[in-house]
Amino acid sequence: MRAVLLAFVVGCWWLQQQAALPGPWDWVGCGCFALVGLLGVWGLRGRGARWVIWVRWLVSLSIAALVGLGWSAWRADVRLGAWLDPSLAGRDQIIDGVVSGLPDAAPHGTRFLFTVESGASGGVVMGDRHEGVAPLSTAPLPHRVLLTWRDPPEVLRPGQRHRLTVRLRRPRGLANPHGFDYGYWLLAEGIGATGYVRHGQLLDRDVAMPLSIRIT
Fold first, then answer.
1. Half-sphere exposure (CA, 13 Å, Cβ side) for 48?
2. Reduced to 3 states, what is the DSSP secondary structure of residue 56?
3. Final residue of a domain: which of 65, 81, 97?
4. How far apart are CA 205 and CA 216, in angstroms?
């Protein structure tokens, strides 16, 4: 059992070393390999020779690794599907939401997690109106974004609801060997975009946040 679990982990690890997720033909090949292995094990049932036992173990470990690979690829595909649509990158987005993490104040601005509740494209927040707002985009915005606000009008606190005009981009990171993988960290944290705040308006100072937001 430990060997099977280890093979599953190896499959997960192997996927993380790839530059891209497996394509449809890759999965067809994996499925054919698994099917041939299972048929081979079924055909060797009832035989107790040592080499037969080794073949069974090899097939079992290979299938466990493929299951780990498939599970990791599915989870990665779900997370990547929640990233910002490329058509929305670099455009003004008006978003309503809640500050959902502890803001990090620095000389270049305040960085904070923001949980998006609703959004539109192409406008700037002016008072209580959206100036120059285009129709709502058909592409959904990510649920969680990491923003930087250079000069917020007041100290940001978790639980505040804001209406912000932001410019977002898809997560990305450096590819330096053995260095910190910023893009992978954003993926693991479920952050679908990064960006900066152009304008903002406080809507509510204290929002009752769900537990899943409070503990992030």
1. 0
2. helix
3. 81
4. 19
Question: Pick from 60, 81, 102: which residue ends a domain?
Answer: 81
- The one-letter code for the residue type at 84 is L
- How far the first Cα of the chain sits from its last, in Å, is 34
Q: At what angle do helices 24-43 and 50-81 cross, to 10 degrees?
A: 160
- Residue type at 161 in one-letter notation: R
Residues 6+ apart with CB under 8 A from 196: 109, 147, 148, 149, 150, 166, 167
Q: Indicate the burial class of 109 (C-beta count within 10 angstroms; 0-12, 13-18, 19 or more).
A: middle
User: Please, which pLDDT band fits residue 125 given cuts at 50, 70 and 90?
Assistant: very low
What is the rounded average pLDDT of the residues 161-168?
89
Tell me, yes or no, whether 92 and 72 share the same domain. no
CA distances from 206 to 37, 108, 131, 156, 163 (A): 58, 26, 26, 11, 14
Give the residue-averaged pLDDT of 30-46. Answer: 68
Residue 177 and residue 143 share a domain: yes
Question: What pairing do the DSSP bridges indicate for beta strands 193-204 and 144-149?
Answer: parallel
Amino acid 46: pLDDT? 61
**Nearest 5°: CA angle at 108, between 173 and 91?**
60
Q: Are residues 126 and 175 located together in one domain of the fold?
A: yes
